[in-house]
Amino acid sequence: MTPQRKSSLLWGVVGALAFLVLVQGYRLLLGPLGPGLFALGGVAVLVGATSAGLTYALEPRVRGNKRS
Predict the structure, then answer these.
(1) How far is the C-alpha of 7 from the C-alpha of 40, rounded, in Å?
(2) Which of 15, 5, 23 is CA-nearest to residue 50?
(3) Helix (H, G, I), strand (E, B) or coil at 32
(4) pLDDT band at residue 67, thresholds of 50, 70 and 90?
(5) What pLDDT score was predicted for residue 64?
């Protein structure tokens, strides 16, 4: 596995977990949400896949800027 792919997958995991933390915080502070557990899990997978894909696509551009 290339370092770029590994990095993007880890960012995808971070994105999915961050979404789930936000959902739990909402439930603790304001009460239950309308969607069920499986729907929120699906959204978390979608958020993770999106963040992984964007990270994979944009990493060469960011690396080319010499700012990171």
Answers:
(1) 24
(2) 15
(3) coil
(4) low
(5) 76
Please tell me the predicted confidence (pLDDT) of residue 35: 87
Say if 67 falls within a structural domain: no
How many residues would you count in the chain? 68
Domain hosting 16: range is: 3-60
pTM for this prediction:
0.84
Cα 59 to its chain centre, rounded Å, is: 15
- Give the pLDDT confidence of 28-38 residue by residue, as tens digits: 999 888 888 89
Q: Taking the C-alpha atoms of 9, 21, 34 and 30 in order, what is their torsion angle to the nearest 10 degrees?
A: -160
For the chain, the domain total comes to 1
DSSP-derived 3-state class of residue 20? helix
